[in-house]
Amino acid sequence: MNYHIAYGTDDYLKDYMEKHQNEEGKFYLLEHSGDAMLIHKTTGDSVFESGHTYEAIEESGSFENAGYAVFNNIPVSIEGRPLFEDRFKERAGLVEKEPGCEGLAILRPLDTETYVIATMWKDERDFEAWRSSSSYEKAHKERDTSNALPQSVFSGKPYLKTYNLIASS
Ligand code: HEM
Fold it and tell me: What is the C-alpha separation between 146 and 148, in angstroms, rounded?
């Protein structure tokens, strides 16, 4: 499954979503402090003129019942991709059992270096509860150990983006 993502204002992207609602696939409109993001999830090509495309290397659950989505953006070097993806194949698999977790998508970038680990939640409080849980600790337990991924895997600093889901079609 491909995730095409475009950025803009919520009004502009809402119109865009309405105009393209007969296209194959699903649209999700997400917003944070006036910045919006439109996701077109499809097996086909993008209808967007700009933005980025990712392919899901793993996905479970969905955005449908989620109110809150968290995108952990991790820049990874081209040489680091196999190691990085192997790590995720062996991931703890705990997050999807957390209360309020509605889904997860691990997205490989097709036109940038930045992977996206998207988690979908009923609301922000559920995400915050996982962040301070032992399940989060366990999922990241290798990070400061000799088993951690080598620094050369990363090509930049990871950054978090959070959004509220405001519409879908
Ligand atoms: C609030 C910030 C973060 C969120 C929301 C997040 C999200 C996730 C999720 C959902 C998983 C899978 C957990 C599971 O299977 O139960 C995971 C694992 C992982 N995360 Fe994070 N993460 C965060 C911070 C970071 C940071 C800063 C890095 C550093 C690059 C990182 C790198 C990894 C890696 C490599 C794994 C695979 C497990 C392993 O460490 O071997 N994460 N993360």
Answer: 5
Annotated domain spans of the chain: 51-166
Closest CA to 25 of 8, 10, 6, 47: 47
Report how far ligand 1's centroid is from the alpha carbon of 141 (Å). Answer: 10
Nearest ligand 1 atom to the CA of 149 is 35
List, for residues 11-41, the tens digit of each pLDDT value: 999 999 999 989 999 999 999 998 999 999 9
Q: Quick one: which H or E segment has residue 52?
A: strand 52-61
Alpha helix ranges (H) inside 58-133: 81-89, 124-131
Pairwise CA distance, residues 106 & 84, whole Å = 11
pTM (predicted TM-score): 0.94
Q: Which CATH class is domain 51-166?
A: alpha beta
Q: Per residue in 71-107, pLDDT tens? A: 999 999 999 999 999 999 999 999 999 999 999 999 9
Closest atom of ligand 1 to 94 CA is 16
